[in-house]
Amino acid sequence: MNKKQAKDRLIIHIVTPFILLFICVGILIAAMIKPADKLKVYFNLAFMDNLKNTPDSASSGLIIKENDIISEYDGETFEEGEIVRPKFGEMYALLSAGAFESSIPVYWGSSSELYERGACQASSSAVIGDDGNTVISAHQDTFFAELDKIKTDDKIYLKTNYGEFEYTVKEIFVFNKKQSKYVSPSKTSKLTLYTCKKDVLGSSDERLAVVCEPTAKKFYNKAEEDKK
Predict the structure, then answer these.
(1) Residue 97 near residue 157, CB atoms below 8 Å
(2) What residues have CB less than 8 Å from 124, skipping those under 6 apart?
(3) What is the band of 197 on the pLDDT scale with cuts at 50, 70, 90?
(4) pTM
(5) Measured between alpha carbons, how far is 33 from 18 in angstroms, rounded to an integer?
(6) CB atoms within 10 A of CB 200
(7) Each residue of 115-126: b (16+ CB within 10 Å) or e?
(8) How far apart are CA 89 and CA 212, in angstroms?
(9) pLDDT (0 to 100) of residue 56
(10) d(Cα 187, Cα 55) in Å, to the nearest integer?
């Protein structure tokens, strides 16, 4: 074996471990992309930071309250009535639509624990049945997986223990997560449902929004001033 061949083999022996290391690191990084995105979904929630409304103690002392929502009410109803404001972490409504396979529980406020249990309503938004923008979001790979199946003029229903409310879909569009105007409080009464837009590579900065107008409401109790 001449000196040139010996030198070439020495270089190959030295370089090969580094090449193998580089390949292994590349495979590991690629394999971790999806889990990392999943973690971002649950800990960063993949939603707008200014709407999280999560108390600092949520991870250590969040009290989650499950309620049995009235599914069938056969008593007297009223067009205007008493609204009951929920507490943070309370499940206070059921959301249903033809596109959804089953009713979705709606929790007041947002945290990683609540997003695992259902849809979450921003506590800065209007309580269901009240005037303003009622903003509800959920993960696109769980409870709002069928949100993209909703069409204009579809009916959306929200049932609470103080009344039931019907909405009609008027707009469906995509917006960037920095465009907070779509999920901010408003003088116009509406229901805004949104989730991350599906992306095969992981989380996306785009949001799919379904905006509805209220078309019917039935309160189970009159407002206090109406009882006098």
Answers:
(1) yes
(2) 51, 53, 135, 185
(3) confident
(4) 0.73
(5) 23
(6) 6
(7) bebbbbbbbbbb
(8) 25
(9) 43
(10) 26
